[in-house]
Amino acid sequence: MLIDYLHWQFVLSPNWFIKLLWNLERASVRFFSISLMLRTLLSYWHKDAMAFTGGSLGKLATIILWNTISRLIGLIIRSAVIAIWLVIQVIFIPLSLITLVALLLWPLLVIVGLAIGLSLLLV
User: Fold this and answer.
1) Alpha-carbon span 50 to 46, nearest angstrom
2) Domain spans, the chain
3) How far is residue 44's CA from residue 38's CA, in Å, rounded to a whole number?
């Protein structure tokens, strides 16, 4: 029975937890559409672009300005989404590693806690 517990504690449980963390990581990448955000970082915002169909230089300047503004809006919003994802990753990854280490050290911490408690009772 002790062997089964040790197998669960140090093999099955960490394996399950690592798979869970990996799935959460993949879910966050898909939720924030990081590959799409990086691929379309300099694209127009919601395909809001104007085509030049001829006319005066003022109209051409307006179209160029509008297309530039649309690209800047897209860049700002996509950069903000990527930045939010990075902040979440900076928080998620260390907390995941701390939790995994705590999961692995939990039996040792219980034994140490019991030993300290018993030594304090006997003193």
Assistant:
1) 12
2) 2-122
3) 13
Residue 52's φ and ψ, nearest 5 degrees, are -85, 120
| pTM of the predicted protein model | 0.79
Four-CA torsion 40, 66, 63, 65, nearest 10 degrees: -100
Question: What is the distance between the alpha carbons of residues 67 and 51, in angstroms, rounded to a whole number?
Answer: 9
pLDDT in tens, 23-66: 999 999 999 999 999 998 888 887 777 787 777 888 888 888 98
> What separation in angstroms does the CA of 74 have from each of 24, 69, 70, 78, 82?
27, 9, 6, 6, 12
Say how far apart CA 67 and CA 49 lie, in whole Å: 5
Residues 70-95 as b/e (b if ≥16 CB within 10 A, e otherwise) read: bbeebeeebeeebeebeeeeeeeeee
Query: Rounded distance, CA 46 to CA 90, Å?
Result: 29
